[in-house]
Amino acid sequence: xxxxxxxxxxxxxxxxxxxxxxxxxxxxxxxxxxxxxxxxxxxxxxxxxxxxxxxxxxxxxxxxxxxxxxxxxxxxxxxxxxxxxxxxxxxxxxxxxxxxxxxxxxxxxxxxxxxxxxxxxxxxxxxxxxxxxxxxxxxxxxxxxxxxxxxxxxxxxxxxxxxxxxxxxxxxxxxxxxxxxxxxxxxxxxxxxxxxxxxxxxxxxxxxxxxxxxxxxxxxxxxxxxxxxxxxxxxxxxxxxxxxxxxxxxxxxxxxxxxxxxxxxxxxxxxxxxxxxxxxxxxxxxxxxxxxxxxxxxxxxxxxxxxxxxxxxxxxxxxxxxxxxxxxxxxxxxxxxxxxxxxxxxxxxxxxxxxxxxxxxxxxxxxxxxxxxxxxxxxxxxxxxxxxxxxxxxxxxxxxxxxxxxxxxxxxxxxxxxxxxxxxxxxxxxxxxxxxxxxxxxxxxxxxxxxxxxxxxxxxxxxxxxxxxxxxxxxxxxxxx
Length: 481
Ligand code: ADP
Ligand code: MG
Fold this sequence. Notes:
This protein has helices spanning about 1-15, 20-25, 45-55, 55-65, 100-105, 110-115, 155-165, 185-200, 210-225, 225-235, 255-270, 290-295, 310-320, 330-335, 340-360, 365-380, 385-395, 400-405, 410-425, 430-440, 445-460, 460-475; strands at about 30-35, 35-40, 70-75, 175-180, 205-210, 240-245, 270-275, 300-305. The chain is an alpha/beta fold. It has four domains: about 1-75, DnaA, N-terminal domain (GMP Synthetase, Chain A, domain 3); about 90-115 and about 305-380, Helicase, Ruva Protein, domain 3 (Orthogonal Bundle); about 145-305, 3-Layer(aba) Sandwich (Rossmann fold); about 385-475, DnaA protein, C-terminal DNA-binding domain (Chromosomal Replication Initiator Protein Dnaa, Chain: A), CATH 1.10.1750. The radius of gyration is 25 Å and the shape is globular. The structure holds adenosine-5'-diphosphate and magnesium ion.
C-alpha cells in the first residue's frame, strides 16, 4: 500500500520540477495507511502547512487517478521538531573591537582587513541580555505584500522560498538568493518578507536596503567617522538582512569586502539573509569569488517572465486595487500584448485606464490597442519561434540546425536537441506534436520525454542547468530576428 505514495510522488516529480519536488514533497513521509486515511509526517509545522496549502491537493488527485480511491490525510509533525529551532550553541569568541580612528580613513578595504580577526563576531551567550538599542524600522513599500503577489509557475520557487523565510527566518534557505530580469517581482518579494516579519515577529530587527544604499551608507560611515554605528546596524543589531540588487556592488571592492564580513557575522549567528540580483551569483562580473560562493550556500531561486494566466491575474488584481472597470476580454488582450515585464504590464493598464477616464470612453479592446499600439508592437516585433530557439541552441552548442532536427543519438547532439525541445515547450505556446513536427517529424512522446528528462537533469547536473539558464535568458531578453 505504501507504494501508492511513492508512485504518486514519482509521477508528480516531472510536473513539479526537481527543485520544488525536493524542497516540498520529498521531506513528507508516509507512515501508514489505515482504511482510507494516509498518515503522513512532516519535518516541522511550517513544512506541514506549506505542503497542505500548496501540494496536498495535487498529490491526492494523483493518488485518486492511480487508485480510483479517495483518501483522507492526517499529517503529524516529526517528534522534537514542533518548536522552532533553539539557538545553536556558539563557541565563545572575543567580540572584535574596531578602532573608529582606523576606519575613518578613506581606505576601508585595507582597514577592514586589519581590524577583523579570523573568528567572526558571535552573539553573546543567551543568558547575558544585550542592551536594547533603538532600532530603526525598515522602509517598506506599502504595496508589496505576500497577499498581493500573484503566484504562477514563473515565480513559484522564489515566492514559496520567500514565504518559507518569512515563516521561519534563519532556519531554512539561508541565504535565499532571488534572481531574475527587471520588473518580475524581486523587490516585491523582499518587501513582502519584511512586512510579514514586522507584523508577526516584531522583536526581530530587520535591515532592508538596496545594495546601492548599503554602499553609500558604508562610504559615508567611513568618511564621517561613524563606522561603529554602521557596523552595529548591519552586523549586531540585525536579525534579518534583506539586500536588493546586489549586482550593484560588483567591482566595488571595499563595499564587497564589507558585505562579505557582514554576511559572515550574520550567517554565523544564524541570522537570515536574503539577497536579490538580476542574475545568478556566478554570472556577476566583478563579484568576488568568496562572495558568490557564499551567496550560493542556501537556495538560489529565479523569477521568470510570467505566463499568460499569471499576467491576467496580475492585471485583474491591479484593476481591482485601482477600481478600474475593465472587462476580462480587455485584460486578456493587454496580457497578450505585454509579456516580459510586470512593471510594464501594470503601466499599460494605468495608461489605458487613465486615457479612458480623460476621454470619458469605456475601455474596449480597440481602445486598448490604440493606446498601447507602439509598446505592443515593440514587444511583439519578434515573437519567439521554435526556429529561433533552434538557431540559438545550435549556435550555443556549436552544432548544425540540421543535427537538431535529425535522428543522431550521439550525446553531443541529443542533449542540445532535448534542451531545444524543452525550451520550445517552455517559451512558446506550441503543443508537443507541433514541436515534434518542427524537429524533423518526431513523435510527440519523444518531445514529452525530452522535456521530462531536461527538467530532471537540471536538478542533477549543474552544468546543464547553467546552459539552459543562459539560453533561456538569451531567448527571453534580446530576441534575435
Ligand atoms: P524587480 O524588483 O524584479 O525589478 P518589482 O518587484 O519592482 O520587480 O516588480 C515590478 C512591479 O510588478 C511591482 O509593482 C510589483 O508589485 C509588480 N509585480 C511583479 N510580480 C508580481 C506578481 N507576481 N504579482 C503581483 N505583482 C507583481
Ligand atoms: Mg527591484
